TrEMBL record:
<protein>
    <recommendedName>
        <fullName>DNA polymerase IV</fullName>
        <ecNumber>2.7.7.7</ecNumber>
    </recommendedName>
</protein>
<dbReference type="GO" id="GO:0006261">
    <property type="term" value="P:DNA-templated DNA replication"/>
</dbReference>
<dbReference type="InterPro" id="IPR017961">
    <property type="entry name" value="DNA_pol_Y-fam_little_finger"/>
</dbReference>
<comment type="function">
    <text>Poorly processive, error-prone DNA polymerase involved in untargeted mutagenesis. Copies undamaged DNA at stalled replication forks, which arise in vivo from mismatched or misaligned primer ends. These misaligned primers can be extended by PolIV. Exhibits no 3'-5' exonuclease (proofreading) activity. May be involved in translesional synthesis, in conjunction with the beta clamp from PolIII.</text>
</comment>
<dbReference type="InterPro" id="IPR022880">
    <property type="entry name" value="DNApol_IV"/>
</dbReference>
<dbReference type="GO" id="GO:0005829">
    <property type="term" value="C:cytosol"/>
</dbReference>
<dbReference type="GO" id="GO:0000287">
    <property type="term" value="F:magnesium ion binding"/>
</dbReference>
<dbReference type="InterPro" id="IPR050116">
    <property type="entry name" value="DNA_polymerase-Y"/>
</dbReference>
<feature type="binding site">
    <location>
        <position position="108"/>
    </location>
    <ligand>
        <name>Mg(2+)</name>
    </ligand>
</feature>
<dbReference type="InterPro" id="IPR043128">
    <property type="entry name" value="Rev_trsase/Diguanyl_cyclase"/>
</dbReference>
<dbReference type="InterPro" id="IPR043502">
    <property type="entry name" value="DNA/RNA_pol_sf"/>
</dbReference>
<feature type="binding site">
    <location>
        <position position="10"/>
    </location>
    <ligand>
        <name>Mg(2+)</name>
    </ligand>
</feature>
<dbReference type="GO" id="GO:0009432">
    <property type="term" value="P:SOS response"/>
</dbReference>
<dbReference type="GO" id="GO:0006281">
    <property type="term" value="P:DNA repair"/>
</dbReference>
<keyword id="KW-0515">Mutator protein</keyword>
<dbReference type="Pfam" id="PF21999">
    <property type="entry name" value="IMS_HHH_1"/>
</dbReference>
<feature type="domain" description="UmuC">
    <location>
        <begin position="6"/>
        <end position="185"/>
    </location>
</feature>
Amino acid sequence: MGPWWLLHVDLDQFVAAVEVLRRPELRGRPVVVGGDGDPTRARQVVATASYEARAFGVRSGMPLRAAFRRCPEAVFLPSDPPVYEAASARVMATLRSFPVRVEVWGWDEAFVGAEVADPWALAADLRRAVLDKTGLSCAIGIGDNKTTAKIAARFGKPGGIYELTAGNWMAVMGERPAGELWGIGPKTAAKLTELGLHTVADLATADADALRARFGPRQGAWLLVLARGLGDTEIVTEPWIARSRSRETTYPRDLTDREEIAAGVAVLARELGAEIVGAGRRVTHVAVKVRFASFYTPTRVMKLRDGPTTDVAVIERAALIVLEKFRLDRPVRLLGVRVDLAMDD
DNA sequence: TCTGGGGTCCTAGGACCC
DNA sequence: TCTGGGGTCCTAGGACCC
Ligand SMILES: Nc1ccn([C@H]2C[C@H](O)[C@@H](COP(=O)(O)OP(=O)(O)OP(=O)(O)O)O2)c(=O)n1
Ligand SMILES: [Mg+2]
Ligand SMILES: [Mg+2]
C-alpha cells in the first residue's frame, strides 16, 4: 500500500492508431482520419492525424483540403466511430482488470486512482497491458489530482510516463503559457493577457479580486486553483449517464428550400429518436440548430409540454415546431437536432 | 483551406410568483 | 402605490474539450 495516486491514461493518435491496427501496412506512414476520407471535398475536417502526418503540420480540426495541401502523400481515411467505440471499450476493460478505480473520460482517456507505493510501476504495467491486449499505445500521467495527472500525460506523449505533482508543478509549469492549462481556451487566454497574465505563475499569483472582477466569482476562484496545480481527486467509477444526444449534418451544398430544410430536420429527429428509444432513455427537450452560410448559428429549444417522451413521432413533431422559430430566408449549411434526456430513469 | 461532429457546464435575462 | 427584493423556471448563448 501507499498514498493515493491519480493517473491519467490517454491513447496516442487514437483514431489513427485504430485505423493502423486494421491496416498494419499503414504503420509509419502519415495517416489522416476525417469526414468521408476524400481530401478533395470541402466542408470536412481532420479528426486526428498520425504523428507522421503531424510532422507536416496537420492537426485535428483542420480542413481536410488544407491537410491534403500540407501532406498530399498521406493516407486519408473516413471516420468510423463504431470501430473507435469498440476499441475504446477494450482499453477501458483492460484498465478495469487492475485493482484500481477507473473513471472513463471520453473516447480515449481515463483517470485511474490507486493506493500504491510505486505509481511508476503501476503506470508501466497499465501501459504494457493496454498495448498487449489492444495493440494501442498510450501515455500515462502520474499526478496528485486530475489537473496534474492530465497535464502530466501530455508531457508523457508519445507512449511515455511523466510525473507532475505539487513538488514539481511550478518548476515545470510556471513559465508556460496559462492557455496550456486544461479549461483555459483561446478566449480566456486572451482575457488573461489583457490583465497582463501570461504564464501559469502569473495566474497563480494573480490578485484574486482582480480575477473575480473580470471573470466572476466562480471562474475567478477556479482559475487560481487551476494555476496552482490543485484540482479534483475524486474518481467516479459509475458509468456516465449522458445528459443529451445530438445529430447534426453539414451539407455539401447549402439548403435554400424550406421543404428541404424541414425534411432534413425530420430525418435527424427520427434518427435521434430511434437511438434514444434503443437506449431506453426519455426525452425532455428538443433543440434545433441552424448554421447559415454566414456561420451565424442560432439554436432554439423547447421543453416538451406533456413531459418526457420515448415517442419518435413526438420528437419529430417537436423538432419541426422548433424549426418554425427560425427565419429561414438565408442559405443553410448545417442542421442539427439535440435532445436533452431525463436524468431520473 | 474557409471553418466536422459529439458532447458538457456555466451564465444571464425575462417571466412569473411570493 | 410608481416601488422593493428574492426564488425558480425557462431559453439563448458562450466557452471549452475530445
Ligand atoms: N478536435 C478533435 C479532437 C479529437 N477528436 C477525436 C479524434 C482523436 O483521435 C480522439 C482523441 O483526441 P486526443 O486529443 O486525445 O488526440 P489523439 O488521441 O488523436 O492524439 P494524442 O496522441 O495527442 O492524444 O478524439 C476529434 O474528433 N476532434
Ligand atoms: Mg489521445
Ligand atoms: Mg484524449
